Amino acid sequence: MKLEELSVDQLERAASMLKAIAHPMRIAILSFLEEGKKMTVTEIHEKLGIEQSTTSHHLGILKDKGVLASQREGKNTFYFLKHERLSNIVECVSRCAV
């Protein structure tokens, strides 16, 4: 699909997702969840080295804006990319930030 084929509503949703991603910790979270990986809040907060409550806050924003989805399994909630193509954004940022 080409950019000019997107409706105003679709463009607004895309912009909202990009705004949610535009934070160093959230970009890091996306990089952890590439290639279909699923992780819990605890696993992510340990990798980031920040408070679990801060990690939960970032995950909530990403989930609210449609970037992440979650799945409950027993006592754990696993987070993953809602659209696997979002990993292309992480790849692009990694290449462009050099």
Indicate the structural class: alpha+beta
Helix count, DSSP H or I runs of 4 or more residues: 5
* Low-confidence residue ranges: none
**Average of pLDDT:** 91
List the helices and strands in order: HHEHHEEH
Main sheet: strands, sense, barrel: 3 strands, antiparallel
Task: Tell me the name of the CATH class.
Answer: Mainly Alpha
Instruction: Tell me the distance between the termini.
Output: 29 Å
Q: How much β-strand is present in the residues?
A: 5-15%
CATH architecture: Orthogonal Bundle
Annotated CATH topology: Arc Repressor Mutant, subunit A
- How do the strands line up in the largest sheet? 1-3-2
In CATH terms, the superfamily is Winged helix-like DNA-binding domain superfamily/Winged helix DNA-binding domain
Total discrete domains: 1
**Oligomeric form:** single chain
Cα radius of gyration in angstroms: 14 Å
Helix content: 55-70%
Number of beta strands: 3
Overall geometric form: globular
Describe this structure in words.
Helices cover 55% and strands 14% of the residues. It has 98 residues and is an alpha+beta fold. It has one domain (8-96): Orthogonal Bundle (Arc Repressor Mutant, subunit A). Strand 2 (68-73) and strand 3 form a beta hairpin. Helix 3 crosses helix 4. The N and C termini lie far apart (29 Å). The model has no long low-confidence stretch (mean pLDDT 91).
